[in-house]
Amino acid sequence: QVQLVESGGGLVQAGGSLTLSCAASGRTKSSTMGWFRQAPGKEREFVAAISWSGGSTHYTESVRGRFTISRDNAKNSVYLQMKSLKPEDTGVYYCAAGYGSIYSLREGAYDYWGQGTQVTVSS
């Protein structure tokens, strides 16, 4: 059984930075790891993904150049470093683990999900 716990969310002003962490228990070292987010009143959307080795990453266009996904398999953790935050980045951020391609944007490509952490960016 895989469990994912996110942390690091909070309230930040536009232009600020936050780093989210996802601590995993269970067998995730061979998994693709992803971050999704859900804004109020909207569907959950893909943000970023990283391959099991950390050698490949993929981002949704709106965050490319501002967000960086990374992982530390020794610590069984995944991170999302967010810079130049915008109010439209506000939402609940979820960590997910799966065995599909990093280019798969579908929620169904991921088997395990965390409970989410709230990120609020004020203007």
Overview of the molecule:
By secondary structure, the chain is mainly β. 0% of the residues lie in helices and 51% in strands. It contains no helices and 11 strands. The protein has strands at 3-7, 10-13, 18-25, 32-38, 45-50, 57-59, 67-72, 77-82, 91-98, 110-113, 117-122. The strands form 2 sheets. Strands 2, 4, 5, 6, 9, 10 and 11 form a 7-stranded mixed β-sheet that branches. It has a 4-stranded antiparallel β-sheet with strand order 1-3-8-7, with no helix packed on it. A hairpin with a 6-residue loop joins strand 4 and strand 5. The chain is globular, with a radius of gyration of 13 Å. The chain starts with a strand and ends with a strand. The relative contact order is 0.32. The mean pLDDT is 95.
